[in-house]
């Protein structure tokens, strides 16, 4: 009896370069979203202080 060759998918280990690339892309995307969040918050704070300086708003409760 002869052994027949069967085509099997060979299991390979993780590709280090591929893992690094995926990690870098995900990290940059998450960092970009975090940075955009901080820019948005900074814009809100700057608008608040601009309105406060112009006298459009006040942080003191008006007495009646």
UniProtKB/TrEMBL annotation:
**Which UniProt keyword terms apply here?**
Membrane, Mitochondrion, Mitochondrion inner membrane, Transmembrane, Transmembrane helix
The terms describing its cellular component in GO are: mitochondrial inner membrane
| Origin: domain of life | Eukaryota
Query: Where does it reside?
Result: Mitochondrion inner membrane
Entry function: This protein is one of the nuclear-coded polypeptide chains of cytochrome c oxidase, the terminal oxidase in mitochondrial electron transport.
Family from the record: Belongs to the cytochrome c oxidase subunit 5C family.
Stated name of the protein: Cytochrome c oxidase subunit 5C
Q: Organism classification, top ranks?
A: Eukaryota, Viridiplantae, Streptophyta, Embryophyta, Tracheophyta
């Amino acid at each position: 009896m002869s052994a027949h060759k069967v085509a099997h998918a060979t299991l390979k280990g993780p590709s280090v370069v591929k893992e690094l690339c995926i990690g870098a892309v995900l990290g940059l995307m998450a960092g970009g979203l975090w940075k955009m969040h901080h820019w948005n918050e900074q814009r809100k704070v700057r608008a608040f202080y601009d309105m406060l300086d112009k006298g459009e708003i006040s942080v003191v409760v008006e007495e009646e």
